[in-house]
Every structure is written in structure tokens, then in C-alpha cells.
Amino acid sequence: MQDRQRSYRYAGPAHLKTAIRADSAGHPIRSRNDFDDWIAERTPAELAEPFTFVVDMDGVLRLAPRRSEHVACAGGGPVLSAGEISFSGEAGRWTVVEVSNHSTGYCPDTSSWTAVAAALDRACLGYPPGFTQEVVFRRCPTCQERNIVREDDFVCVFCGSDLPALWNVDSFDESP
Length: 176
What we know:
Elements: H1 14-18, E1 27-29, H2 32-40, H3 44-47, E2 51-56, E3 61-64, H4 70-73, E4 79-90, E5 93-100, H5 113-122, E6 136-139, E7 146-149
Antiparallel strand pairs: 1-3, 2-3, 2-4, 4-5, 6-7
Protein name: Zinc ribbon domain-containing protein
């Protein structure tokens, strides 16, 4: 496990977590060979869309089809990051062309990029200097709903209360 890295518990609907099958965890990418083997099995239709990803607690990148739930990709456990990722094959080399922290189940902070970069380094994949789309998540202290902050408007879309400046999604008790 990586030192001093924030982890994220699942904060989404409980029914999605309870529906996880034992074989639903995303495919682990620990090396370039793992990635090459995995990508070779993808269809053109799959490659046309982003993939669901998580970085698990061991710092391993896990990949699944886009419509997979992040909590399933993580096998139900906590993660170091989560989001969507797209690849492009150029001159026989695959690189990451887009990557976001867009996961409404885990709501990772933008600071989780360091875990993503470390996992991509281990897989020997080129990547952009940060998330190509950063999503800012906050939990409303009044109604406890999860929010995506847009255009720096830190106001809850559900009840109109002010949202905190600092990430707080996991600071509330999550009862399954």
C-alpha cells in the first residue's frame, strides 16, 4: 500500500455494493505485459469508449468496461482513486489520452491523481500531466447529499446550503 495516501470508501447507493459478484472486480494491471494482454482482448466498440478504473489499496490499476460500477471494479473495497480512462494506440504504443476522477460512488478528491500516476507508471503507460477532467465532489453538511461542484459554485443543488471548500465526502457515517 502507498504511504500517506488518502483512501476513499464507497459512498454511493448501498444496493450497488450488495449486488457485487465475486468475479466482478476489474482486471488488475500490474505491468505493461498485463496491460498489453488486456487491451488485446478489447473490441473496437469497447476501445471507442472510456473504461471504468480504480486504483486499489495496493496501488494496482483495475480496469472494467465503462458501464461497470466503480464499486464492482474495486471488488467492494476502498480505493486510492477512481474514475474513467481512455487509451489511444499510436505507433504500437498505448497511452492514456483522457482520465478523470469522475466516480459518483467513491467521489475521490482531485489530489488522488498521484495514485493514478503511480499506477500508470508501473504499467509503463504514457499519460497526461493530471486529470484531463477534474471533478470536485462535496457532501452537503445540511442534507448530507453528494454534490458535484460546477464552476466554483459551492452551493448544494439539493437544499441550497453552502458546501465546504475542502473535500468532505467521507467525513459522514456511511451506514450500509
